[in-house]
Design brief:
Blueprint: E1 4-13, E2 16-26, E3 31-35, H1 42-50, E4 57-65, E5 68-69, H2 75-81, E6 86-89, H3 93-96, H4 103-113, H5 119-132, H6 151-162, E7 169-173, H7 181-198, E8 201-205, H8 209-215, E9 218-223, E10 226-232, H9 233-238, H10 243-252, E11 266-279, E12 289-302, E13 306-310, H11 317-324, E14 332-337, E15 340-341, H12 348-351, E16 354-357, H13 371-375, H14 388-401, H15 418-430, E17 436-440, H16 448-465, E18 469-472, H17 476-482, E19 485-490, E20 493-499, H18 500-505, H19 510-518, H20 526-529
Parallel strand pairs: 3-8, 3-9, 6-7, 7-8, 13-18, 13-19, 16-17, 17-18
Antiparallel strand pairs: 1-2, 1-4, 4-5, 9-10, 11-12, 11-14, 14-15, 19-20
Helix pairs in contact: 4-5, 4-6, 5-6, 7-19, 10-16, 15-16
Length: 530
């Protein structure tokens, strides 16, 4: 008997049709992956199972959990099922967790709400759950708050909450999107172990097809609210029938060819950089302590070169980036931009030589402003910013350079898709013609097809403008194709550097070998795509 059966599920909100006759099933102890681009209906399908839909939603069809139609249940009955029979791991753990409650209280919450055991026993069970997901109580006491944990550790807390009452069905919505490769591998291994140990069914929603290929027993491919193809993982990989499925998997392995770099001429030089953070005092009279996040780091980025920086969360990538951008001081060493010490830069004309593209384009834009104002924000640092017709011409030229049109200048940011927003973020970084652009996880949250288009755009911009950039990412497949050289960072130090292809083909440092081994890889699809 199937654990979950979805038959001809359709969902409409107002006049908008979200889901159209979605059907699939999941057996106990099985892992089913639902994949597709943003807007395909993946998450709305999961929310339909949980019955976490807007009030205006109109749903038809059936969603049966062990023969019980969830669409016919009252809200009170669904509250009994959520947490006990159905658990859910949300995409962003920091949003899913309450920042003012301890991790112990949040893991215990589900247990106490369902009155599964008394508070004393629930506390002991919470410790066991956290230990089961890799957070032993001697290192991670129940009194810790979410902000004291890393992204991967927070995701483990969310998983502990979801499995607190051993639900029969676990839904994981993009559980590894923002995690580095080693943490991602640990979370996926944990989910697999839980499925085997508890004989639960796992419905995982992801756009990372390499994860799908390694983890799932069956795959459901969705597009525009419809299931376009489904089947066993190995069977579907060998013989993909739908053009959309073939396009998705081809985009996942998309490679680009960068133009040849210019002759070496240093643009950015970091010499012996040291960055310390003060730690809280352990007692009133204790000696102040500090944590060294960046340890004597030195690097050179030549003009026209594309440099990658990879490493786990907490390795010091972001700290080093903030120092390069002049946002944080160093306790030792120096940073030179075009031969001038960064600490001495006070000239806005020199400041415009550096721009940054952030991971989340929505969070980096003011939603009240139109695109023309958003992408001209760097003009405020220029003493003689273009005005009038010259300003309009530059806006139009820059939008065309990133694959958009001049008419897009008068729209708001919410009127664009995720890939278009990232193009606008690149346009903002490009409009002052900087000499150095820093890409901070600029494509990690994008769909595979959108990511492929952004990578093609980078190649076009490199050819047109001779871009020099520092590309920071945990997606090793992207770093491999869009960088000339690569730096590997661990615990605040550069442990390996060199030609990108050589590092990936023949890593020398054990940590680099560990990173590359942990990264999920798509199997050879030549036969399946034929």
């Amino acid at each position: 008997m199937n654990l979950l059966e979805i038959n001809t599920l359709s969902l409409r909100i107002g006049s908008k049709e979200i889901l159209k006759d979605v059907s699939f099933h999941l057996a106990p102890g099985e892992i089913l992956a639902v994949t597709g681009e943003s807007g395909s209906g993946k998450s709305m399908t999961a929310f339909s199972v949980m019955q976490l839909l807007p009030e205006a939603a109109e749903v038809t069809g059936s969603i049966c959990l062990e023969g019980r139609d969830l669409l016919q249940q009252s809200e009170e009955a669904m509250c009994d099922l959520r947490g006990s029979s159905i658990g859910m791991v949300f995409q962003e753990p920091m949003t899913a967790l309450n920042p003012v409650k301890t991790i112990g209280a949040q893991v215990m919450e589900t247990i106490l709400i369902h009155k599964a055991m008394p508070p004393e026993q629930a506390e002991d069970h919470a410790r066991e759950l956290l230990a089961r997901v890799g957070l032993p109580p001697e290192r991670f006491p129940l009194s810790r708050f979410p902000h004291e944990l890393s992204g991967g550790q927070r995701q483990r807390v969310v998983i502990a909450m979801a499995i607190a009452l051993r639900p029969k069905l676990l839904i994981a919505d993009e559980p590894t999107t923002a995690l580095d490769v080693t943490t991602q591998a640990q979370i996926l291994e944990l989910l697999q172990d839980l499925v085997q140990e508890y004989d639960m069914g796992l419905l995982i929603i992801t756009h990372d097809l390499a994860v799908v290929a390694e983890l799932a027993d069956h795959i459901v491919v969705m597009r525009h609210g419809e299931v376009v193809e489904t089947g066993s993982t190995q069977g579907l990989l060998r013989d993909m029938q739908h053009p959309y499925t073939r396009m998705l998997f081809a985009a996942s392995k998309h490679q680009v060819t960068l133009p040849a770099p210019q002759s070496p001429s240093p643009l950015l030089e970091v010499r012996g950089a040291i960055r310390d953070y003060p730690l809280p005092r352990t007692s009133l009279f204790a000696k102040p302590q500090s944590f060294r996040a960046v340890r004597n780091v030195s690097l050179t980025l030549n003009r026209g070169e594309r440099l990658g920086l990879v490493g786990e969360s907490g390795c010091g990538k972001s700290t080093l980036t903030r120092a390069i951008l002049g946002l944080e001081p160093l306790q030792g060493g120096e940073i030179l931009l075009d031969g001038a010490p960064l600490a001495a830069i006070r000239n806005p004309e020199q400041r415009r030589k550096m721009q940054v593209v952030f991971q989340d384009p929505v969070g980096s834009f003011n939603p009240r402003h139109r695109v023309d104002r958003l992408i001209t924000e760097p003009f405020y640092a220029l003493p003689n910013a273009p005005k009038g017709g010259a300003r309009e011409d530059l806006i139009a030229e820059t939008l065309r350079a990133v694959g958009l049109g001049p008419e897009d200048a008068h729209k708001y940011i919410h009127q664009f898709s995720g890939g278009q927003r990232q193009r606008i973020a690149i346009a903002r970084a490009l409009i002052t013609r900087p000499e150095l652009i820093i890409f901070d996880e600029a494509v990690s949250a994008l769909d595979v097809s959108v990511r492929a288009r952004i990578l093609d755009l980078l190649v076009e911009l490199c050819e047109a403008y001779g871009l020099t950039y520092l590309f920071i990412s945990h997606d090793l497949s992207v770093v491999r194709t869009v960088t000339d050289r690569c730096l590997v960072m661990q615990k605040g130090e550069i442990v390996e550097q060199g030609n990108t292809k050589e590092i990936f083909d023949d890593p020398q440092h054990p940590y680099t070998q560990q990173l590359i081994q942990a990264a999920p890889v798509l199997p050879d699809l030549d036969q399946g795509a034929a």
